[in-house]
Amino acid sequence: MGRSFEKSFAWKERAKAALVGGGQPHKQSQPPDPVMVAGGKGAHFWDADGNDYIDYLMGYGPMILGHAYPTVIEAVSKALERGNVYNFGHTLEIELAEKLVEIIPSADRVAYFVGGSDATTGALKFARAYTEKEKVIRCGYHGWHDWCHNTRGHLTASAESTLSVGFNDLETLEELFKEHHGQIACLIMEPSGHSLPEEGYLENVKKLVNSHDALLIFDEVKTGFRYALGGAQEYFGITPDMSVFGKALANGFATAVVVGRDDIMDEVSNVWVAATFHGEVSLVAAAIATIAELEAKDGVDFMWKQGTKLLDGYREMTVRLGIDQANIGGIGPMPFFGLNSDNDEQSKFRQTFYEATLDGGLYLPPGHIWFMSISHTDEDIDKTLNVSEDALKLAKAKS
Ligand SMILES: Cc1ncc(COP(=O)(O)O)c(C=O)c1O
Of 74, 261, 294, 391, which one's alpha carbon is 20 to 30 angstroms from that of 67? Predict the structure, then answer.
């Protein structure tokens, strides 16, 4: 590799001594390595050694406008001059709620949370209270809390009441409802991702879930404000009973919300889901500024355009170069290009590709959907495709 990563390696050593596990699990195992971030601006970040990258992780989704985005920073600074946490209702949280009700199809009422895991857990609590049923079905990733996992350290009893179904698998969903007849409070699902919903799938899911007196919850923590301003539900034209939004809502500030239909949300309004930092001023101010900028800049259309250009470019290039192990998925605002590694030869090819793209100034998440922002310029997209093509050619030449 041409770049030096000396300082990143040194910081990694310090991380091992100071942080549990050297950092959170997904940060420990986030190849290509090594990257210790020192700062970011727009669609770029730079590491401890000063190497610049075009970023397609974008914080795993929050940075929809870009890193260190001026209008958001200004709005937060201005709001903070008048304090941050009161634990009274405040005017900004009502302003944001009104905006969300305007733009999100399933939103009549809004409840504030901090972070996606907090919000998905809150949505489940609402659903259990409303339906007076305990079990839930999940489809996708919904966070780290006990009900989401059945791994070391998690409360077995909580995880046991969570059933799981694959995306686009209507048959298994029907079986689960039969098998656990009358016990299921809700299906919480990511409405789209690496795979897109098959024709009629989301409509049929909604019919099926509601026919069992259960609630359909769309987890739009990733898709929200990207597929459309009102999320994947607006894009696909399917309105769930409740939805969860987080990540991109506040361009890097940790606010998240559960929104839902008025009859449901009014019925559960006394369910205890309160916390000190729910609706914190800085988070809410950031969200208002983020949505305003997305609207002012036609941000969603722009991300669709840039992401589609990337996907088209990768499709054309991999066909032309005959790259059989290419794995292309997602859609405009959340595209994905990766390489399968089913054998040693493919693994070597893959490693050469990621080393060369990192060296060429790209951060391409290898095993996770990518996130576009309104700061990914035409120049960024062209560079991404050019560096990727050179890296594929290099990997081919070496194999
Ligand atoms: C769809 C979805 N739901 C929930 C979460 C959990 O959000 P957080 O990591 O902010 O707790 C994530 C995080 O990646 C997610 O992608």
Answer: 391
Hey, is 208 helix, strand or coil?
Answer: helix
Tens digit of each residue's pLDDT (9 = 90 or more) over 309-361: 999 999 999 999 999 999 999 999 999 999 999 999 999 999 999 999 999 99
Residues 312, 196 share a domain: no
If asked whether residues 339 and 305 sit together in one domain, one would say yes
Expressed in angstroms and rounded, the spacing between residue 321 Cα and the centre of ligand 1 is 36
pTM: 0.96
How much distance in Å is there from the Cα of 140 to the middle of ligand 1?
A: 10
Q: Per-residue pLDDT averaged across 224-245, rounded?
A: 98
Burial class (CB in 10 A: 0-12, 13-18, 19+), 174: middle
Calculate how far, in angstroms, residue 142's C-alpha sits from the geometric centre of ligand 1: 5
User: Which domain range does residue 133 map to?
Assistant: 70-296
Does residue 319 share a domain with residue 227? Answer: no
How far is ligand 1, taken at its centre, from the CA of residue 141, in Å?
Answer: 7
At 399 the pLDDT is 85
Neighbours of 15 (CB within 10 A): 16
Instruction: Give Cα 295 to chain centroid, integer Å.
Output: 20
Atom number of ligand 1 nearest to Cα 120: 4
In this predicted model, what pLDDT tens digit does every residue of 6-42 receive, in sequence order? 998 899 889 889 998 888 766 665 555 668 999 999 9
Residues touching ligand 1 (Cβ under 6 Å) are: 60, 115-117, 120, 140-143, 190, 219, 221-222, 246
The mean per-residue pLDDT over the stretch 250-273 comes to 97
- For ligand 1, atom 1, the nearest C-alpha belongs to 221
Going by CA atoms, what residue is nearest to atom 16 of ligand 1?
222
Which pLDDT belongs to residue 151? 83
Q: What is the pLDDT of residue 158?
A: 83
The C-alpha atoms of residue 305 and residue 175 are separated, in whole angstroms, by: 40
Ligand 1 centroid–CA 116 distance in Å is: 5
- Count of all residues that appear for the chain in the document: 399
In a domain, 65, yes or no: no
What tokens were used for 179?
């098998």
Long-range CB contacts (within 8 A, 24+) of 13-20: none
